[in-house]
Design goal:
Elements lengths: L8 E8 L6 H13 L4 E5 L5 E8 L8 H11 L2 H11 L12
């Protein structure tokens, strides 16, 4: 079975401020924003340090619906797991982009 390409993300954080000593809070704010699932943000800290952050990924851009999630599981599981998916969720959820019979 062919392995799917690995999922990748490039995270860019740009910081601009009065001194590199002040960058820690800006980087922390950017990280916090991204850790909640945001794909990007702009902001500034109390000391005037500005930051922008952006995530570029090869993940599918369509919403992660139940059908998409089950289709991905169906595509990448072994035959026993595939049969269990069909028994639990039925065939209709597994006939999207990633059908396996």
């Amino acid at each position: 079975m062919d392995k799917p390409p690995p999922y990748k993300a490039v995270i860019t954080i740009e910081v601009e401020g009065p001194s590199p000593d002040e960058f820690g809070q800006a980087i922390s704010n950017a990280y916090d924003t991204l850790s909640f699932g945001s794909t990007g943000a702009n902001g500034s800290t109390a000391n005037g340090t500005r930051y922008t952050c952006k995530v570029v990924t090869n993940l599918p851009s369509e919403p992660m619906t139940l059908d998409n999630l089950l289709g991905m599981l169906d595509e990448h599981c072994d035959p026993e797991q595939r049969q269990a998916l069909r028994e639990i969720y039925g065939e209709e959820h597994l006939k999207g982009k990633h059908p396996k019979n």
